[in-house]
Design goal:
The protein has 302 residues and is mainly alpha-helical. The protein contains eleven helices and five strands. α9 runs antiparallel to α10.
């Protein structure tokens, strides 16, 4: 197992948007674990109502049970906020990125979000980063939906949007060192790898996994195509932003103002005709008096 644990980058200030996303996802997962019903609860409700039908027959039994089961299922975050395939443009394209299938799913995504998101938010600012994150969530989900050919499913998780952050990270921080820790049975350690090597390797892994999944005809719980679509989306958008921010090499430099002579105003005519006072004379200091001879007798002051 190989896990990234840090980057060689100093963040200026608190990445509030990144922290807000992590807190929101964590609170939703806490609610899903502690208070929300599960899919097993919905199935148990239906079985209970089926058992009660024999004792109390009702013509509207089917519609009543369906409505009651739907109301219970709406309290499950995955069903309430997740994106059903084939749903088209919907607000669920954004909310699905804040719901996860379990704590392990949440922890892995939030770790990658913190590493890539904090650095990008520090570079772009809060508003641009927040808009890019939401757009990435929608783009990766639509990419998965366009290529999905299996049975209908509900897509949840922030991995598609985070993959877009990783693509943008590769554009702006290609030479950044990423710190990893590894653990294989009884061997553990750490190593560093530059971003322009680590991130393309991760992307190739996603391509290989998606190809093996389609070739075998298996349905996986990991949306590899959403990762691929998000990474490409982030790579393209970040490249466009970076190129647009650069000044063309052949653009003419702005002209500098040439120095001009500054003419001093002439003095008024009356002042020019006024005679100037002669400079003051400096007199030499007088020499001190010679010392008095004590034999000359007394001296009186008058």
């Amino acid at each position: 197992m190989i896990i990234p644990v840090g980057i060689n980058h100093v963040i200026r200030g608190w990445p509030r948007v990144t922290i807000g996303i992590i807190v929101t996802c964590t609170l939703i997962q806490i609610y899903a674990t502690a208070w929300a019903p599960s899919q097993e609860d919905v199935a148990a409700l239906i079985e209970k109502r089926i058992g009660e039908r024999s004792s109390s027959p009702d013509a509207d039994w089917a519609s009543t049970v369906t409505q009651e089961a739907e109301q219970l299922a709406e309290r499950i975050p995955i069903i309430r906020l997740g994106y059903p395939t084939g749903h088209g443009l919907s607000w669920r394209l954004f909310t699905a990125a804040f719901v996860h299938s379990g704590w392990l799913h949440l922890f892995g995504n939030m770790l990658f979000l913190w590493l890539a998101g904090a650095a990008l938010e520090d570079r772009w600012g809060r508003l641009r980063f927040a808009g890019f994150y939401l757009a990435s969530a929608a783009a990766s989900t639509l990419f998965f939906d366009a290529l999905h050919s299996g049975p209908d499913t509900i897509l949840v998780g922030a991995s598609g949007a985070i993959s877009a952050l990783m693509g943008a990270f590769l554009v702006f921080f290609a030479r950044m060192q990423i710190h990893f820790v590894y653990w294989f049975w009884t061997t553990a350690g750490r190593f560093d790898l530059v971003a322009y090597v680590a991130l393309p390797l991760w992307f190739l892994e996603q391509l290989l996994s998606a190809w093996l999944q389609d070739d075998a005809g298996n349905v996986s719980s990991v949306a590899f195509t959403a990762h691929i679509g998000g990474f490409v989306f982030g790579l393209v958008v970040a490249a466009i932003v970076k190129l647009a921010a650069r000044q063309p090499a052949d653009a003419p430099e702005p002209e500098r103002e040439k120095p001009r002579p500054v003419a001093r105003p002439a003095p008024p005519a009356a002042e020019a005709r006024r005679p100037r006072d002669p400079p003051p004379k400096i007199e030499a200091p007088k020499p001190p008096p010679s010392p008095r001879d004590p034999g000359d007798g007394p001296t009186f002051l008058s």
